[in-house]
Amino acid sequence: MSLLLLLLACALTCLGQIAQKCAIEGWRGQSTGWRGKLRSPWLWLALAALAGGLLVWLLVLQRLEVGIAYPMLSLNFVLITLIARFVFHETVDRRHWLGVALVLGGVVLLGQQA
Fold first, then answer.
1. Confidence band (pLDDT; 50, 70, 90) for 107?
2. Which of these, 21, 12, 105, lies nearest to 58 by C-alpha position?
3. C-alpha distance from residue 22 to each of 2, 11, 31, 53, 85 (Å)
4. 57 vs 33, which has greater pLDDT?
5. CA–CA separation, 7 vs 73, rounded Å?
6. How many whole angstroms separate alpha carbon 70 and alpha carbon 90?
7. Which of 112, 14, 103 is CA-nearest to residue 68?
8. Mean pLDDT across the stretch 76-93?
9. CA-CA-CA-CA torsion for 107, 108, 113, 114, nearest 10 degrees?
10. Cβ atoms within 10 A of the Cβ of 60, count?
11. Alpha-carbon gap, residue 82 to 85, rounded angstroms
């Protein structure tokens, strides 16, 4: 159950980050002021996902030691990199992919303790 909650916290946090990116992309070239920007559904999705992620994270911290739980959030780095590359078609260099591989290795090692 703890692992599922941790994965849900990661997913919600990633969704929040991606929704922020979509909101800001939607604002490019927009001459409307803050009122128009506050009407962005992406902005509200980001806020809702990040709030949900926070609440789930609190449940995770009730069940896991912070020394185990917090490093597992580095999965966000991996997920966001994959989304940046394959959804937003951003360039990801070899060093970045090496970092992703190292993060995944660390998550696997820590996951064996959870």
1. confident
2. 12
3. 30, 16, 17, 18, 15
4. 57
5. 9
6. 27
7. 112
8. 93
9. 70
10. 24
11. 5
Which band of pLDDT confidence, cut at 50, 70 and 90, is reported for residue 80? very high
pLDDT of residue 32: 72
Measured distance between the N- and C-terminal CA atoms of the chain, rounded to whole angstroms: 11
Please state the rounded mean pLDDT for residues 38-61. 94
CA angle 23-11-3, nearest 5°? 165
72 neighbors 6 (Cβ within 8 angstroms): yes
Q: Is the model's pTM score more than 0.85? A: no
Q: Which amino acid is at 51?
A: A
What radius of gyration, in Å, describes the C-alpha atoms of the chain? 16
Nearest to 25 by CA among 84, 75, 91: 84
Distance CA 110, CA 78 (A): 15
Polymer length of the chain? 114
